[in-house]
Amino acid sequence: MKVLLVKDVYKLGRAGEIKKVADGYGRNFLLPQGFAVLATAGALKQVDRIKSQAEVRRATQNNELKGVADQINGVVLTFSSKAGETGKLYGSVTTQDIATALSEKIRFEVKRQQVDTQPIRTLGEFTAHVRLTMDLVPEIKVIVYREGETPESVTGAAAAAEASAKGEPAKEEPAAETPAETAE
What is the spatial distance between Cα 154 and Cα 128, in angstroms, rounded to a whole number? Predict the structure, then answer.
């Protein structure tokens, strides 16, 4: 089925584009939600008008959300979780968890559908993208650490693992001197 997109659709296209989509996707989602219309001869005459309206709408959305994108960009979220010896989590950190923590941190409502990442099932440091608009996609850092430890232990272990993978010796911090050693 050929459709003319009326609004921007994530992972499909921008408003004013003509796309060939599966019949069920068009009939059950795009058309009822108002994201597209059938690509008929009459609808094709309106392509320029739809594109110009979409450009104006996109520009106003980008201007409104520019400040929020600046706030979100570079945010570090930390999650403590129970994990096994191998670093595999008992459960996972989902997009809902990330969206809730981000909303609390920046005081702006972020929906779980806007967070672009797979569920996190291991300890470590991960990056996630937050889709505010098609053009504004700030990046955040998610650190998952074992309960009872500090978040820095995960980043330090990750740096040591990277260094050993490259064949470089890991930088070890000098051990703190104990009072017994200084007395001698």
Answer: 17
* Burial 97-118, CB ≥16 within 10 A → b, else e: bbbebbeeeeeeebeeebbebe
Cβ-count burial of 34 within 10 angstroms (0-12 exposed, 13-18 middle, 19+ buried)? exposed
Determine, yes or no, domain membership for 35: yes
Each of the 184 residues of the chain gets a pLDDT tens digit; together they read: 999 999 988 889 999 899 999 999 999 999 999 999 999 888 888 888 988 998 999 899 888 888 888 888 889 999 999 999 998 999 999 999 999 999 999 888 989 999 999 999 999 999 999 998 888 889 999 999 988 887 777 665 555 444 444 544 444 444 444 444 444 4
Structure tokens at 54: 């979409």
In the chain, how many domains are there?
Answer: 2
